[in-house]
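Why should sequence recovery work at all? Because a backbone constrains its sequence more than one might expect. Tight turns favour small or flexible residues, buried strands favour hydrophobic ones, and helices have their own preferences. The token representation captures these environments compactly. In the example below, the structure is given first.
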């Protein structure tokens, strides 16, 4: 098993991602705004590269941030990467990241934000989701990630409708779906008994989501059902625990208990708030 770091390293304090809002972008002369945006994207690639090296040193998987390219897929901004004055430097940074992935053999994964909903009843929302998924899949191609479930792109279905026809092939071949934590959304039982037989898409087991929405399945039955959908690839599952308080779906800072793999071999993204600090604390506890 490899543990997965999600997006941000709290141990690499000098490496921070940068963003840019459309309000800020549109308040500046376009040439100046593009220069600032390009610098921030280049910083994000350099930060990504540093974190992948960190993951390689610690035998972690790495979930790339879904915020590496602020505004690039935002319609109102009307920006392509080629518009940025440091486009050549950004392309060089892609090569740098690709080489680091090759050197470290870190498993790279992606989890586009919760606002990406293929099953939305709003056609505009579906269109934006497809644009985002296709862009990030092309980026994963560019940095040398295999177009299969070794580099999965994880998504929530949320509602119980949806269309996948407009997703590019290399996105379809990476797409995996996780169980939801809300009662009116997809449980492991529904995903494995209804969704997977129709789509053949692997199901990501999320421990916390299943605890919130078990739908009559015990944890072992649920995790084995998800495991069987990955067709020879090492599954990538998610682990977190509830933060103390009134919302059981809120993620805790650290793990306070041991999870059970039920003898199965899979990789596991730690979705705890303290990121790599939480992984290290957990590993220290189980080694005692």
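From this structural description, the recovered sequence reads:
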């Amino acid at each position: 098993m490899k543990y997965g770091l999600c997006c941000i390293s709290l141990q690499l304090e000098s490496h921070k991602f940068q963003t840019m809002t459309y309000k800020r972008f549109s308040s500046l002369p376009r040439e100046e705004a593009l220069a600032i945006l390009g610098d921030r994207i280049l910083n994000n690639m350099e930060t990504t590269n540093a974190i992948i090296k960190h993951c390689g040193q610690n035998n972690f998987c790495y979930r790339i941030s879904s915020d590496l390219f602020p505004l690039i897929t935002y319609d109102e901004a009307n920006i392509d990467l080629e518009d940025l004055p440091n486009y050549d430097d950004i392309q060089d940074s892609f090569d740098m990241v690709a080489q680091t992935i090759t050197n470290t053999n870190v498993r790279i994964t992606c989890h586009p934000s919760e606002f990406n909903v293929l099953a939305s009843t709003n056609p505009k929302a579906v269109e934006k989701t497809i644009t985002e998924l296709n862009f990030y899949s092309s980026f994963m191609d560019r940095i040398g990630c295999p177009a299969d479930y070794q580099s999965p792109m994880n998504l929530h279905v949320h509602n119980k409708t949806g269309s996948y026809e407009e997703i590019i092939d290399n996105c379809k071949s990476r797409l995996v779906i996780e169980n939801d934590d809300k009662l009116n959304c997809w449980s492991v039982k529904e995903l494995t008994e209804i969704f997977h037989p129709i789509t053949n898409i692997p199901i990501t087991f999320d421990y916390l989501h299943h605890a919130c929405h078990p739908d009559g399945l015990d944890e072992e039955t649920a995790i084995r059902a998800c495991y069987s959908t990955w067709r020879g690839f090492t599954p990538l599952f998610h682990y977190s625990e509830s933060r103390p308080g009134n919302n059981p779906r809120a993620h805790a800072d650290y793990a306070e208990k041991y999870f059970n793999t039920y003898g199965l071999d899979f990789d596991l993204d730690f979705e705890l708030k303290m990121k790599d600090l939480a992984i290290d604390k957990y590993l220290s506890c189980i080694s005692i």
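A few observations help interpret the result. The longest strand covers residues 3-6.
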